[in-house]
Every structure is written in C-alpha cells, then in structure tokens.
Amino acid sequence: MASPLRVLVSGAGIAGPTLAWWLAKTGATVTILEKTPQLLPHGQNIDIHGTAITVAKKMGLMDEIRKKNTTEKGTQFIAPDGKGFGRMGMKKGSSASPTSEYEILRGDLAKVFHTAAKDLPGVDFKFGMSVKRVIKNDNKEVEVELSDGRVEKFDLLVIADGQWSRLRKDCFPASAVEVVDYNLFVAYWTMKREETDNDDWNIYQGLGQRGMTLRPDPYGTIRAAITFMPPTPEIRKDWDEASRSGDKTLQADVLKRDFEGVGWQAERLLGGISTAPDFYFHPIQQIRMSQWSSNRVVCLGDSAWAPTPLTGSGTTLAILGAYVLAGELAKLSPGEHPGRAFQAYDDAFRPFVKETQSFPVWVPRLVHPKTWRRRWFTQMALAGVVRFVTHPWVIRWIDQPADTEDYKLPEYAELDEAIKASEVPVSG
C-alpha cells in the first residue's frame, strides 16, 4: 500500500491551515511550521466574499466566522470638521456596502482555520519552528533542515509564510518575483475605545496625501490605521528606511513627524502608538510571480500573489488558492510527482489572481488628496456616489448576495467524497 502524501507547509496564517484541512481529509499527512511561538491575536479587519464563502461553507466554518464578527455596522467618511458624511450601512447577505457581514479580524480568522485543522488525523502544527534551509529539492523528495537542527524529508513543500517570505527567496530566482509598488504605506495598531467612538469604519482624508481610519472590534478596543503617500523622494526614503529597519521606535517617529497637525483625531491616534501591543508598519506592494512552483516546492497565498489590501481580496484568494491546490494534489496517483498538480493549480487559478491584481497604480492618489481643493472635489464626488448607490432603486439594481460566485470552482470529486466520508456538517 502506498504511503500517504507527506506535505510540509511553512506558515500558519490563512492559506496554510486551509490547505492542511483539505489535504488531511484526503488522507495526506501535513506538518505546518509557524515561526511564532503561538498564533498571533493581532491583525486588522479582513473579510471573505464571493466563492471563498462557498469553500468556508463546505468546511462547515461559517457559524464560527459569524461569531467572530467585528461588530462593524457600516462605513462613513469624515469631513474636515470631524462630522461624518456619505454613510453606507451594512446589509446582511448583501455586497452593497464596504462593510461586510463577514468582517473579522485576521487573527480571529486564522484561529478559526487552525482550530478546524489541528485535531484532524495527519495534521501536526509545530509553533516556534521554521525551515532553516532546503537541502534538496529533486524529482524524488524535498529534504529540509529545520530551525531546531533536525533534517526531515517530504514529498512537497508549500511556502505560505507571507509576502516577504525568506524561504521563497531561497527557492526561487529573483527574476521570478516582481514587486509592484504603489508609493503607499500603512500602519495599524489597537487603541483604547472611547465613549464617543461608534461602530462604523470611519475614514478621514487629510491633506498632504495622509489618511486615517478607526474601526470597531469585538473586544472593547478599537483598531486604528494610517495610510500615507510620501510626497517627495526624501520623505519616501525616510519611510523606506524605517520600514526596512524593523525598528518600531523609528517607524513611530517618522509617522508622528509626518502626521502632526493632519486634523480629526490625529493627536489621539499618534498618542496611542506607544501603548499599542501590535503596531505594524509596511509599504503597500504587490507580489507577482512568473512561476509558483519549482520541482517539489510551491508557493501559496501572499507568498505567491500578495494582492495588497487595496483589492480587499487577499483572504479570499488565500482560501480559494488552498482549495484549488488541495484539489489538484488529491487527483495525483500514489507516488506521482506533484509537478502535474502544480501546473494544473497554476492553470486553474492564475487567471483569477491576475484579474484580482489588476489594480491601477494611480487609484490610491484619488483617495489621498494633496491639496484642499482636491480634497473638496474628492469628497463632493464621494458624497454623490454614496447618495447614488444607496438610493433604494439603485440598490435593487446593483445589489447581489455577498456569496455571489466570482470564481468558478473546479470540480474535485476527491474533495467532495472526502467531505461526505467525514460527515462534516455544512453551515450556511
């Protein structure tokens, strides 16, 4: 009898555990390495939509996802005087608002997928562990040295450890990875909630291409974020150096320097950085790979195609990509090289990834005005658009269910049979 497929996954975010769940259902053994000592509870709002909801339903996870909802009730823009305008309320079962009924913090969603996969036969999560180096990647197997010094062999290695994966850099040539830059930075952190805070996603456009937002969470705190498009090469250099340094103090210093006097609740947000347990600062850059696999190594999730938060589809792509990769691997014959599955995964999913990533580099400038005249024009346009799309007649015309299919799932009889065999209850 052939041995089950032995899979090593680097990264316990969204894509890795989703893949592990499906592969375990088909009889594979999956080891997931995560360099952090435990799942990080941090992270800002994300959501799932379209066909990714179908996959989550197949996994029986929708009830848990709903339970972790961030409590966000809608989206509104903030005028220079601090008052809200252009509000769009969340409507259950609808995609007509930027706020989804499936809003969830990234850490909470990662926990949902981890909990679902961790006790399945054949799944082994190892925290505080990573791949130190790939010793061998040939037609026979993948041999790796782990961070604790052990050497182990697998049938394939899945790189799912994020946009700036070191392991991807070790396994793929630089020519295989394209970085698309948007001259945009973002920082996130958690703050104390105040009585005056509401349950909307509040979006403020400051002058000088500076933006701020506040969003509710289900834990009695509030999630702050800033976005910034450096207006000069000199300022851009400062932010690049701060980002590359990994020095939280330096990052906070350049942020405070360049956001002083921007208005609205800037003083409060900047004052909350020093006590934030999860301050995170990075450039908005898209990853595009010309090839997702190399012999027995394959990339998944942000490691393969980070679409940026601008698309709102990073989580959706991670879930769908994991499903497609699992489905193609499940079709392999015992002992067959995974190359055929990798190519089929690429063929089936790359067109949708490419479509999702087709986000013009000039779009961020539209919502990051430099002058008061441009801000006035932008906000008048936003107010008009919101009035139009929230009109009852227009809503009936443009509205569609949040789970409307945006990607045609390939048919995988092996995955469907695995679900039936394990009698997973499907929640919707």
Automatic annotation (TrEMBL):
It comes from the Eukaryota. SUPFAM superfamilies: FAD/NAD(P)-binding domain. This is FAD-binding domain-containing protein. The keyword Signal does not apply. Transmembrane segments: none annotated. Residues 6-356 form the FAD-binding domain. Keywords: FAD, Flavoprotein, Oxidoreductase. GO terms for molecular function: FAD binding; oxidoreductase activity. The lineage of its organism: Eukaryota, Fungi, Dikarya, Basidiomycota, Agaricomycotina. PANTHER family: MONOOXYGENASE, OXIDOREDUCTASE-RELATED. InterPro entries: FAD-bd, FAD/NAD-bd_sf, FAD_aromatic-hydroxylase.
